[in-house]
Amino acid sequence: MAFQYIDYTVEDAVAVIRLDRQDVLNSFNKQMAHELQNALDDATGDDSVRAVYLTGKGRAFCAGQDLQEAISGEIEIRKIVKDHYNPIILKLREIPKPVVCGVNGTAAGAGANIAFACDIVFAAKSSKFTQAFSMIGLIPDSGGTYILPRLIGIQRAAALTMLAEKLTADDAEKMGLIWKSIEDSELESSALGAAKKLAQMPTKGLAYTKKLLNLSADSTLEAQLALEEEYQSRAGSTYDYKEGVNAFIEKRKPEFKGK
Ligand code: T3D
After folding, report:
1. How confident is the model at residue 6 (pLDDT cuts 50, 70, 90)?
2. Residue with CA at minimum distance from ligand 1 atom 42
3. Considering 88, 116, 157, 209, which has the largest number of Cβ atoms within 10 A of its Cβ?
4. 166-181 burial, b if ≥16 CB within 10 A, otherwise e?
5. Residue 1's pLDDT band (boundaries 50, 70, 90)?
6. What is the pTM of this model?
7. Within 13 Å and on the Cβ side, how many CA atoms surround 213?
8. Is the distance from the beta carbon of residue 80 to the nearest atom of ligand 1 less than 6 Å?
9. Rounded to the nearest whole angstrom, what is the distance from the C-alpha of residue 65 to the centroid of ligand 1?
10. H-type helices in 180-250, by residue range?
11. In 98-239, at which residue ranges do the beta strands (DSSP E only) sit?
C-alpha cells in the first residue's frame, strides 16, 4: 500500500515505519493515523515480517495530535480518540510480533503514549517526553491512563500527566518508562539493530510472551500460572523450540524460522 505521511519498508524481516510530517513535528492528522493503522495491519498480515520498528523522520518522533486539525472542528474529539488513537494502541499491543520504538526526538501527547505502548523503547539522549495534554485542558489519551501507572506507579503518572514537565530520555530510562537512552548517533543502529535481532528469534515464542505480559495487567497469579502452562505447551510444539534445543545440543547456531 502507498502511504503519504509514513515511510514503510521491509528490511531484514523488519517492517520499518517512519512517521513523516516533519514540518509539524510528525503530529497526527486523520490520514497519518489511518496510514499507521494500515501499516500495522500490513506488518501483521505479512508472514515475512517478524518484527516492527517505529520511528520518526526529522527532529521529532511525534508531537501528538495535529492541533490545527483538532481546532478546525472538522472531526469531533471523540472520533479522533476512537477512530485514530485507540486502534493504533490496540494494534501495537496486539500485533503478534515484537514492536521496537526508536524515539528520535520530541515525543509529546499521543506521540509519547504511542511510544510507551511499544514493546521495547529506545530513545535518543536528546529526546524529551511530555504529557502535553494538561497544558491544553485535555486528559492523557492513547492509553496514557492505563500504561503510565502500570509502568511507573500512580504517583509518578499523576505528576507527569498533570505537571506536563519535559522528561529527558535519561530520566525516562531511570524511571522505567523506556528501555534505554542511547547516544543520538547510535539510536538507529541500537534500536533498529534490536528489531533485526528480534526478527531472527522464535517469533511465536515472542508473540506468546507479549500476549501473556498484556494479560498480566489484569490477572491473578493463579490465572497467570494457568496461562503460562497453556502457552508454554504451545511454544513447546513449535518448530523453533525443537530447532533451539537441537542447536544447543549440537553446539551450533540455531536457525529459527518463526514457525
Ligand atoms: O482532538 C484532540 O486534540 C484529541 C487528541 C489529543 C491527543 C494529543 O496528542 S493532545 C497533545 C497535542 N500536542 C501538543 O500539545 C504538543 C504541541 N507542541 C508543542 O508543545 C511543541 O511543539 C513541542 C514541545 C512538541 C516542540 O517544541 P519546539 O519548540 O521544539 O517546536 P515548535 O516550534 O513548537 O514546533 C515546530 C513546528 O511544528 C511549529 O510550526 P511552525 O511555527 O514552524 O510553522 C509548530 O506549530 C508545529 N507543531 C508542533 N506540534 C504541533 C504542531 N503543529 C500542529 N500540531 C502539533 N501538535
Report:
1. very high
2. 24
3. 116
4. ebebeebbeeebbbbb
5. confident
6. 0.98
7. 17
8. yes
9. 8
10. 187-198, 203-216, 221-235, 239-249
11. 99-103, 106-108, 120-124, 128-130, 167-168, 180-182
